[in-house]
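in:
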């Protein structure tokens, strides 16, 4: 486990009298620049939602479990250093084609519209699937998570 994640979790745990060590540590995106950009939106409380491909969890290709309501995540920056902790508030599993304007807005990216969300997420999902020889379809299930920033460095 990343030492900075352990340290940040310990600070959070002590400050809020948390008695467990159940959390994931991860970063948004697939490049250091994207990771830092998306993290900045979280820290400004503009980004309170995120989406991922259900199939990658189902096939065991993700290093994480499907998020659950009440679960905690330590967010890492582009240098793999812990910067914040979020708590999952809502988890929706729905087809890509049913992602709504509200989902797109909560992701906090670009102009926060559904058209922007589709323009950036479809290529992102296609690239992730391509690594495993899989192809994208608008019927694919998306794990959509609404979260709250609960602690930051």
């Amino acid at each position: 486990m990343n030492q900075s994640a352990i340290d940040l979790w310990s600070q959070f745990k002590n400050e809020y009298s948390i008695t467990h060590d159940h959390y994931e540590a991860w970063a948004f995106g697939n490049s250091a620049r994207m990771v830092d950009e998306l993290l900045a939106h979280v820290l400004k409380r503009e980004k309170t939602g995120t989406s991922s491909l259900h199939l990658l969890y189902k096939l065991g290709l993700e290093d994480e479990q499907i998020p659950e309501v009440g679960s905690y995540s330590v967010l890492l920056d582009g240098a793999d250093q812990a910067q914040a902790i979020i708590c999952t508030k809502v988890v929706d599993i729905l087809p890509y084609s049913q992602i709504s304007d509200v989902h797109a807005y909560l992701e906090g990216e670009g102009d926060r519209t559904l058209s922007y969300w589709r323009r950036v997420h479809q290529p992102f999902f296609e690239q992730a699937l391509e690594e495993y020889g899989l192809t994208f379809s608008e019927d694919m299930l998306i794990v959509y998570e609404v979260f709250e920033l609960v602690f930051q460095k």
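note: The longest helix spans residues 114-130.
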